[in-house]
Design goal:
Blueprint (H helix, E strand, L loop, with lengths): L1 E10 H4 L19 H16 L20 E3 L2 H15 L11 H16 L4 E7 L3 E10 L15
Antiparallel strand pairs: 1-2, 1-4, 3-4
Helix pairs in contact: 3-4
């Protein structure tokens, strides 16, 4: 088991475009369906994997381009350490003063290490100034067998 780190920052308006953060439905529209639905399905099927936007479901990071992986770690603690470094880096820009609290951030990092150790994924998001958004995710690989369709490991 290992863990991949992902980071995205960008305008809040772009992050809020949820339709671009959803994978296509597993069943395409029927061949005789409305042409506009078939075209929209094709656009989403081609666009979602290539989009740099964070997916609504953390495990779907695995189908994004390999270039989006910011790091890979065998140890949950090392992955959580990376997370802590990113939180410290961006904390001065957090819109909420409560989000900048160092005790709270330390708890988030400890919780992440514990969850990764159990094979879970971790995803945090923070509003930044301007307004922008920061998305941080750690995805455990290989994904559980119950998560079919989320993609294969990007380093295999």
């Amino acid at each position: 088991m290992h863990h991949h780190g992902y980071l995205w920052t960008g305008p809040k308006e772009r992050f809020d475009q949820e339709a671009l953060r959803r994978p296509p439905h597993p069943d395409p529209p029927p061949a005789g369906g409305k042409p506009e639905l078939i075209q929209r399905y094709r656009e989403v099927a081609a666009g979602f994997p290539a989009s740099d936007l964070p997916p609504l479901e953390t495990a779907y990071w695995l189908i994004k381009p390999r270039s989006m992986v910011r790091g890979t770690w065998d140890e949950p603690g090392k992955a959580a350490e990376w997370l802590g470094e990113r939180l410290a880096e961006y904390a001065p820009r957090f819109m909420s003063e409560a989000d900048r609290d160092t005790i709270r951030l330390t708890i988030l990092v400890s919780s992440a290490a514990e969850r990764l150790g159990r094979g879970a994924n971790v995803s945090y998001g923070f509003y930044l100034e301007r307004p922008s958004f920061l998305s941080l995710a750690l995805v455990t690989c290989p994904p559980p067998r119950t998560h079919t369709g989320h993609g294969a490991c990007p380093i295999e």
